[in-house]
Specification:
about 180 residues; mainly alpha; 9 helices; elongated
Amino acid sequence: MPTPEKQEQILQTHASLVIAVVQTIQNPQLKPHLEHVLQQSAQNGWQALVNVINKIMAGSRDQALLNGLDEEDVVIVDSILRGIQDPATLPVVEQQTGDATQAGPMMARLIDEARRGDANALSLLGSMAEQMSQAGGDMANLSAVLKNMIDGERDVDKLCTRMGPQGESLIIQILGELAKRDFH
């Protein structure tokens, strides 16, 4: 089991998913939105988690659902199960108040590390892509091109085909930072 600090980090990263599952169980009219989120999650490599969430949606509440999951998925599923029993235990979605000018350099660093084989950076980018796809707009479009950037795509026109001005600016900032990293 991860440390309490790591558990909290996992819950903050996936709070919107945990809350969406519990809210959908309480209000089945939300199911189309959750199905879209789960489809995106499966496409981002979270199929085992999606399978367990679908079992929960079908009514299963057995702790055996945790068997075979990695520690991150265990924290997420356990939080969902606790949230169904007592919504007061649900994670609180913290508003991110970070410095937007640091987004490009941070994303570039993670992309570069993932490209070089760093599994932690790749996992973090996967989590970020999941959240960005849920946010919609330019964030969802950015999540769709992250893998391309990890794979070495640097053509701004290809990466920005569906981006608005803010998303395009962020892509250009990321590419600039990646160029600096490639040079060093």
